[in-house]
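Incident log, structure service

09:12 report received: a user says their structure output differs between two submissions of the same chain.
09:20 pulled the input from the user's history:
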Amino acid sequence: MALPAHEDMTALRDAVASGAVSAEAVCAEAFRAVRARDGAIHAFHETFEERAMERARAVDRDRAAGRPLPPLAGMTVAVKDNLATSFGHTTCSSRMLGTYRSPFDATAVERLERAGAVVVGKTNMDEFAMGSSGEHCRWGPVANPWDTSRVPGGSSAGSAAALAAGMCQASIGSDTGGSIRQPAAFCGVVGLKPTYGRISRWGLVAFGSSLDQVGPMARSVRDAALLHDAMSGVDPRDSTVADRPPTQLAASVERPIEGLRVGVPRQYLSDANDPEVNAAVAAAEDAFRAMGATVLPVDLPLTDVGISTYYVIAPAEASSNLARYDGIRYGHRATLAPGEDLATLYARTRAEGFGPEVQRRIMLGTYMLSSGYYDAYYKRALQVRRLIKEELDRAFASCDVLLGPTTPTPAFRFGANADPLAMYLCDVYTVNTNIAGICGVSLPAGYAVRDGRHLPIGVQLQANAFEEDRLVRAARMLERALAPRTARPEGAVTAGA
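09:34 re-ran on a clean worker, output below:
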């Protein structure tokens, strides 16, 4: 059965519910795309075709029997490989966990499946979510479907690439400093980073525990809203999740906001940005004005210290979280020669199991937490974190959302940011969202053309903590207004075509 053309998952879901198309056909199309395209992209570490097809057939049986269908019935979803699943492996794209099988499902995965979603596979990522390009994956780099010589962004590289290439209807990732929004921008999809505590982190392999957040990636804002609703809500297994009911974003996402106030931080329009990125932000400003919104200049002078603050807090937390991988209880274990001691086992296991970027961040974090340096680095970073949150609070007192670029540039070529500092600066506009614990979304805003290839550009909206309803409604307004700029260019060739 050929699938009809649908603009997003929400429309396809309605077609499945009506019987116009079968869930089995939706699932079969996803795996056809995987077989045809993933050889060039390498988005998936592992797929689950037999399991997924059976779940899709169960949806069709329920529909035929007249039983009510859950909100995501039959929709194919890809899962980042740092979210635990009781089926397949959970490797974090690391040799350290290369053979690990989880005995349980992460709460986010459990809730998506309860809502009827069909998990097609686990996606490759930067090892332990440490990276901004998809190049730091133990199983090999992930490519951007728009130009396979370029990166898809990271660390949720495979989740974004699989979605952009049509190998699933939606995906989920994790965002510690921009790891959902940055690859969404590079791959031309929507990436939503919820407020810290909005979605349970239970079953998410920890990187920076005060920064990590699970979130959806989708082809439209309304799809992202639907996925967010399915995953959100209280979880007694996660002590950091907020005591708030599940969101109802999908019910209001189409309703425009009257009197919307949009703040544009002047620090976000740096001359260091690609000119086409700044032009995309200007077009978004014009679109908001045309809809009757008030666009206000905002000053966020601490924008530039976000990266340095993040790269103290995140490695420090990573150093603590990754100490558990010692070669004793689970995961990779090095081989000892007769007479070698336990300290040698620890050192060799970690040297063999972790890649260079993970080792770099563990060493940075350990140094900053060590005696004599804690106050100078980690404690000071926490003080700056509070100042960043206060600065954003003041901005939200005068505006409803903040608008700016998601990334300074479109997707770059493999190896172009080999210098770690240059790579870290890719997240300059996203890290403060995590530092402050607020919510943000990246959505497509146009294209740049490089070497005859169209490369997506994303813009970011941010809203204050637990203001996801306002965020997605503003994003949906902008998405509709920018539709002529974000339509697939005539003649564009991608690995997802």
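09:41 both user submissions now match this output. Likely a transient worker issue. Closing.
09:42 reviewer note: The chain has two domains: 9-266+401-486, 304-381. The chain has a mean pLDDT of 95.
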